[in-house]
Each structure stands twice: as structure tokens, then as C-alpha cells.
Amino acid sequence: MHECHVVCGAPAAGKSTYSRSLAQRLGACLLDSDTLAGRLVTAGMTLAGLDPDDRDSPEYKRAYRLPVYEALFDVARANLSHAPVVICGPFTSEWQREAWPEELRTRLGTDPELHFVWCDEDLRRRRMRERGEARDRQKLADWESFRTGSREDRPVWPHRFIDTGEEDQSCNSR
């Protein structure tokens, strides 16, 4: 089995940018939750008569959160036998589950290296505005509710801490 890296963090913390850089450096397959399932989730939400850009409501989480993550892990496992893999997704509920690294090890068939990507909330808000993604509209429209409901704590399991708030965007590791 090749090496596997799992990158997590809050929306707009810099997960995708960091994951692309890491995958390029390792010559790894990049599996980003937004890229892997974004179009399917949008289509399903539309067919259900829901906001196609919603990624935060209880309806989205009930219908899509687990299947999107399961698809990421299935595709990762299928590729790990012949290539290193970088998995990128928020995984916010998993931050407080001490057993999650062992669950991943069992699921993936290898011991993944876990990366937590972080930056302060003002920078995350600015990044959301600048990227102009439809999935961020509701967050920005009611920033205070989004901010108070967002996780800022670090995961309980051992991880590589990546601060993407540095001016040079080099994704410093601590």
C-alpha cells in the first residue's frame, strides 16, 4: 500500500490549495470532496427541490455527508494499491472522535497521515468573498451564525498542523 494523507479543516481554511500542493509534491492522486461529488450533490439537491448550493443544512448533511465521504474512501482504497493518495474534505465531525484515525486505518488498509489546515476566521471570510463560490453565499449572508456554528478547535488525534494564514501562502507546518 502506498501512503495516504487526509487533509481536513474549516471551509476556506485552505484545504484544497494545500492538498493540491501536497499531491503534486508526492506525485499522489488527489481526491477532493468538492471535486469528486460536487456536481452529483448539486443535481440531487436540485431534484429534491432544495438549494443546489447548500452544503450546511440538516437536509444536505442527512442525504449527502456520509455518502460523499464514503465515496472518497472507496476511491482512495481503490487507488492506494498503485499510487499515493491525498484525501481532502472538511471532516469537521470527526475532529473530536479519538477513534477516527483507527477507523481510517481499517477502512483504507493503511495508516494515514492526518493534516489539519487552519487560518483565522477573518481570513476565511475574505477567502470566501474572493473565491465567489455559490456554496459560500449563505455563510457570508449570515456570517455571525456561520461563525458561531463553525469549529475552531483542533482535532483530538495526532495531526500535522498547517497554518495557511502566512502572507507567503507557503502553508507552514507546525
Summarize the model shown:
This is AAA domain-containing protein. The protein is an alpha/beta fold and 174 residues long.
CATH architecture annotation name: 3-Layer(aba) Sandwich
Give the biggest sheet. Answer: 6 strands, mixed
Helix content: 40-55%
Q: What is the oligomer described by this structure?
A: single chain
Broad structural category: alpha/beta
Strand content: 5-15%
Average of pLDDT:
91
Per the principal axes of the C-alpha atoms, what is the gross shape? globular
Number of strands: 6
> What's the CATH superfamily, by name?
P-loop containing nucleotide triphosphate hydrolases
Distance between the termini: 27 Å
Secondary-structure element pattern, one letter each: EHEHHEHEHHHEE
Region (Disordered): 149-174
Protein name: AAA domain-containing protein
InterPro entries: P-loop_NTPase
Biased composition (Acidic residues): 164-174
